[in-house]
Amino acid sequence: MTDDLLARHRAVLPSWMPLYYAEPIELVSGSGRRVTDAQGRSYLDFFGGVLTNMIGYDIPEIREAVERQIRTGIVHTSTLYLIRQQVELAEKVARLSGIPDARVFFTNSGTEANEAALLVATNHRRSHQILAVRNSYHGRSYAAMGVTGNRGWSASALNPLQVAWLHSGERLRGLLARLDPADRIEAAVEDLREVLATQTAGNVACLIAEPIQGVGGFVHGPDGLFAAWKKVLDEHGILFVSDEVQTGWGRTGEHFWGYQAHGVTPDLLTFAKGVGNGFALAGVVGRADVLESVPAISFSTFGGNPVSTAAGNAVLDYLLDHDLQANAARTGAILADGLRAAVAGLDCVAEVRGKGLMLGVEFVRPGTTEPDPALTTRVFEACRAGGLLAGKGGLYGNVLRMGPPLTLTEDEAREGLAILVDAIRSCAQAEVAP
């Protein structure tokens, strides 16, 4: 029973591991974009295991690729031996990355991928100075947490890196939000120059940034911001790392990678989540002269193992064969346009934002920009009651996050939109009822 499982969970797992919903659910089966809980209730999934089940559930092509590998009897060999699936996937990732003369190192998670990128960049530049962005999230390990600009996810004040912080693309709050959109990139560049002049000792290793901040509530700066930043970085030889853990693989609809909206090519790119469609698979791809900067032997015992890379090859083939980037643009527009029209008269919704199938709705106290996490939670619970799974996030916990599988159909987008709109309107009305 779920109640018994919840008690067992609380008895053996740490309390800092959150569970969604007032009454947590166990998901026991899935197909397409739908999952079923232990009580037999079916849900349309608009969060995909935190944007990870990118192709959906029980996809024959992926299942068969994994089963073929398992039938060989080889689940793991370590990277001390040649792994055909790994080499084939690395070839695809290198080609798709847009980075010239690229090399790929596989890990198990986005956290590990960002750790690897930081290891490479600090070795390449012989410096532990890092530029990071406020409101960012890059993982839960020591260094990755150190470049995370969100106190709610910073579990330690200790940091192996010296970090200087840039303003984010926040459009509702903060210094840059006070400016006209046309002036924000110029102001962000001025901020970068001042940070370099005042908060660093020169020889900075890299800037790490998300094209769209995931945990931060799908906040993003104006297109072209990264290119403007990189002009300054190039003046100093500073590397640029694009954290594409959530924005990669066509999720934004308009581009395959989030960085491409900025007209710039990163030195290093990290990826994870969707490429494994639930199998542990991630990595970093970068220019050979940069990625070869590790001065000692290193490898990842499980990273890029035969099973996960078999899944990854099948995922990428399916993604490209079915042009899921175009589908993300098409179905994402249904959701974004429908949501914006539906909430236009609601002063408790500050913004509907994002790109493609990466959308956020920010809730505030009516007529203000003061975050309203309590209303967000009510909408979140109402979505579940209506048969829709969504996510939460944002610096203040007041953003409803949606990252459905990229295989979402137009009918499913409209179905989910109807549930979302009903949940938002009903909770907003209850908020103002006497």
Automatic annotation (TrEMBL):
Q: Which GO terms describe its molecular function?
A: alanine-glyoxylate transaminase activity; pyridoxal phosphate binding
Q: What class of enzyme is it?
A: transferase
What EC number is given for this enzyme? 2.6.1.44
Q: Which cofactors does it use?
A: pyridoxal 5'-phosphate
Q: Does the keyword Transferase apply?
A: yes
Sorted UniProt keywords: Aminotransferase, Pyridoxal phosphate, Transferase
- PANTHER family membership: ALANINE--GLYOXYLATE AMINOTRANSFERASE 2, MITOCHONDRIAL, PTHR45688
- Report the family membership: Belongs to the class-III pyridoxal-phosphate-dependent aminotransferase family.
This protein's assembly is summarised as: Homotetramer.
Name of the molecule in the record: alanine--glyoxylate transaminase
Species the sequence originates in: Micromonospora deserti
